[in-house]
Structures are given as structure tokens and as C-alpha cells.
Amino acid sequence: MNYLGLAMAGVDDFQMFGEDFLPPEAPEVQEVQPAQQGNSATTRLNWTPLMSAHMLQKFTNLVAEGVRTDKGFKDFHVNVVTKDLQAFCGQPVVTSQVSNHLRKWRTKWQKVERNQWR
């Protein structure tokens, strides 16, 4: 919007003819945080290779200790790995994020196994 040539004498104290327009000081605007959507609203976790390696190492240690994984890991074991990962990376991590990431690695491993025997 061009304010040159604006002449509104007597209306909100505007009198301008080629002058620099300086708006009145506005109050400081506070940053608005997005609204939480129920209990399931979590921030997106960007998995780094170090975080993935740490998670996979913890699950590998569980298997080495003798945890039976023929039907997957129990929720208890996923919770333990989640808490350990959260302490490791210093970011909030939710159990569903770890479960989904483990599922991603499981599908990658299945593709490797399938291609190995062809």
C-alpha cells in the first residue's frame, strides 16, 4: 500500500504529503503455540542414524539376553527401550514412535532377506 499523498487531516491524526510513514508503536505480539489435539498429539521425531543405531542395539541386547521375539517384543520391552532412548537423545520419545520405527527396520530387513536368496 502506498502511503505517499495520503491526506486525512483531522482523522486519526494522519497528515502526510510525501513524508515517511511511521506507524504507531504496536504492542509486542506473543507467539501462539498450536493447540494440542487430544492425547495423541506428539511432535514429529526426526530419527538420526545415531538414534536408530542406539534403538537397534538395545533391541539386539534384549534378544541376546534371551527375550523371545517370535511374535514381536512385548510392550514392557518397548517401554524400556523408549525410556532409554529418551535419556540418550534428550528429546521426548513416545512408545508408538519406537514401535513404528522398529516396524520400519523390520520391513527393511525382510526385503534384504528376500533378495539374499534370489
Protein described:
With 118 residues, the chain is mostly helical. It has a domain at 74-118. The protein is 45% helix and 0% strand. The chain contains 3 helices and no strands. The chain has helices at residues 49-64, 75-89, 95-116. Helix 1 (49-64) runs antiparallel to helix 2 (75-89). The longest helix is centred in the C-terminal third of the chain and has 22 residues, at 95-116. The radius of gyration is 29 Å and the shape is extended.
Fraction of residues in H or I helices:
40-55%
Q: What is the gyration radius calculated from CA atoms?
A: 29 Å
Largest sheet: none
Continuous helix count = 3
Mean pLDDT: 76
Number of strands: 0
Envelope shape? extended
Q: Give the end-to-end Cα distance, rounded to a whole number of Å.
A: 67 Å
Beta-strand content bin: under 5%
Uncertain runs are: 1-6
Briefly characterize the structure.
By secondary structure, this protein is mainly α. The protein has three helices and no strands. It has a domain of 45 residues.
Features:
extended; 45% helix; 0% strand; 118 residues; disordered N terminus
Annotate the secondary structure layout.
Blueprint: H1 49-64, H2 75-89, H3 95-116
Helix pairs in contact: 1-2
